[in-house]
Amino acid sequence: xxxxxxxxxxxxxxxxxxxxxxxxxxxxxxxxxxxxxxxxxxxxxxxxxxxxxxxxxxxxxxxxxxxxxxxxxxxxxxxxxxxxxxxxxxxxxxxxxxxxxx
Length: 102
Prior knowledge:
By secondary structure, the chain is mainly β. The chain has one domain (about 10-100). The protein has strands spanning about 10-15, 25-35, 40-50, 55-65, 80-90, 95-100. Strands 1-2-3-4-5-6 form a six-stranded antiparallel beta sheet, with no helix packed on it. It is elongated and about 50 Å long.
Protein backbone atom coordinates (compact mmCIF):
# COMPACT_ATOMS: atom_id res chain seq x y z
CA UNK A 1 0.00 0.00 0.00
CA UNK A 2 1.39 3.36 -1.05
CA UNK A 3 1.03 6.27 1.34
CA UNK A 4 1.41 8.75 -1.52
CA UNK A 5 -1.91 8.84 -3.41
CA UNK A 6 -0.39 9.26 -6.88
CA UNK A 7 2.56 6.89 -6.56
CA UNK A 8 3.07 5.00 -9.88
CA UNK A 9 0.24 6.83 -11.64
CA UNK A 10 0.07 8.20 -15.18
CA UNK A 11 -2.03 11.22 -16.25
CA UNK A 12 -3.17 11.99 -19.79
CA UNK A 13 -5.29 15.03 -20.54
CA UNK A 14 -6.46 17.26 -23.34
CA UNK A 15 -8.08 20.64 -23.78
CA UNK A 16 -10.09 21.76 -26.78
CA UNK A 17 -11.13 25.39 -27.06
CA UNK A 18 -12.99 26.48 -30.17
CA UNK A 19 -12.72 30.18 -30.98
CA UNK A 20 -16.31 30.71 -32.12
CA UNK A 21 -19.01 32.98 -30.74
CA UNK A 22 -20.32 29.96 -28.81
CA UNK A 23 -16.99 29.76 -26.92
CA UNK A 24 -17.20 25.95 -26.73
CA UNK A 25 -14.51 24.22 -24.68
CA UNK A 26 -13.76 20.76 -23.30
CA UNK A 27 -11.14 19.78 -20.72
CA UNK A 28 -10.71 16.08 -20.03
CA UNK A 29 -8.21 13.75 -18.43
CA UNK A 30 -7.62 10.35 -16.91
CA UNK A 31 -5.30 9.20 -14.12
CA UNK A 32 -4.39 5.49 -14.21
CA UNK A 33 -2.64 3.62 -11.40
CA UNK A 34 -0.24 1.35 -13.29
CA UNK A 35 0.14 -1.03 -10.33
CA UNK A 36 -3.50 -1.92 -9.61
CA UNK A 37 -5.44 -0.49 -12.59
CA UNK A 38 -7.46 2.13 -10.72
CA UNK A 39 -8.76 4.96 -12.91
CA UNK A 40 -10.00 8.50 -12.35
CA UNK A 41 -11.79 10.28 -15.20
CA UNK A 42 -12.52 14.00 -15.33
CA UNK A 43 -14.46 16.00 -17.94
CA UNK A 44 -15.41 19.68 -17.94
CA UNK A 45 -17.28 21.22 -20.87
CA UNK A 46 -19.05 24.50 -21.54
CA UNK A 47 -20.82 26.25 -24.39
CA UNK A 48 -22.55 29.59 -24.80
CA UNK A 49 -25.91 29.90 -26.52
CA UNK A 50 -26.44 33.41 -27.84
CA UNK A 51 -25.56 36.39 -25.66
CA UNK A 52 -27.47 35.31 -22.57
CA UNK A 53 -27.04 31.58 -21.89
CA UNK A 54 -24.20 29.23 -20.94
CA UNK A 55 -24.40 25.47 -20.36
CA UNK A 56 -21.68 23.73 -18.32
CA UNK A 57 -21.01 20.08 -17.49
CA UNK A 58 -18.61 18.64 -14.90
CA UNK A 59 -18.04 14.90 -14.48
CA UNK A 60 -15.70 12.99 -12.13
CA UNK A 61 -15.66 9.17 -12.06
CA UNK A 62 -13.54 6.68 -10.08
CA UNK A 63 -13.25 3.12 -11.43
CA UNK A 64 -11.51 -0.12 -10.41
CA UNK A 65 -10.22 1.23 -7.09
CA UNK A 66 -8.38 -1.52 -5.17
CA UNK A 67 -9.06 -2.06 -1.44
CA UNK A 68 -5.42 -1.15 -0.71
CA UNK A 69 -5.66 2.18 -2.56
CA UNK A 70 -5.74 5.45 -0.60
CA UNK A 71 -8.88 6.46 -2.56
CA UNK A 72 -10.81 3.26 -1.72
CA UNK A 73 -13.06 5.15 0.70
CA UNK A 74 -14.18 7.47 -2.11
CA UNK A 75 -14.74 4.79 -4.78
CA UNK A 76 -18.51 5.51 -4.85
CA UNK A 77 -18.17 9.31 -4.86
CA UNK A 78 -18.71 9.97 -8.57
CA UNK A 79 -19.83 13.50 -9.36
CA UNK A 80 -21.95 15.05 -12.12
CA UNK A 81 -23.05 18.68 -12.34
CA UNK A 82 -25.00 20.35 -15.12
CA UNK A 83 -25.39 24.11 -14.91
CA UNK A 84 -27.45 26.47 -17.04
CA UNK A 85 -26.71 30.15 -16.46
CA UNK A 86 -28.46 33.23 -17.83
CA UNK A 87 -26.62 36.51 -18.20
CA UNK A 88 -28.08 40.01 -18.34
CA UNK A 89 -26.17 42.45 -20.51
CA UNK A 90 -25.83 46.08 -19.59
CA UNK A 91 -23.24 48.81 -19.88
CA UNK A 92 -20.94 46.98 -17.52
CA UNK A 93 -19.52 43.53 -18.16
CA UNK A 94 -22.05 40.69 -18.34
CA UNK A 95 -22.94 39.39 -14.92
CA UNK A 96 -24.40 36.07 -13.95
CA UNK A 97 -27.89 36.45 -12.57
CA UNK A 98 -29.74 33.15 -12.70
CA UNK A 99 -28.15 29.73 -12.31
CA UNK A 100 -30.00 26.46 -12.66
CA UNK A 101 -28.21 23.33 -11.44
CA UNK A 102 -29.22 19.73 -11.86
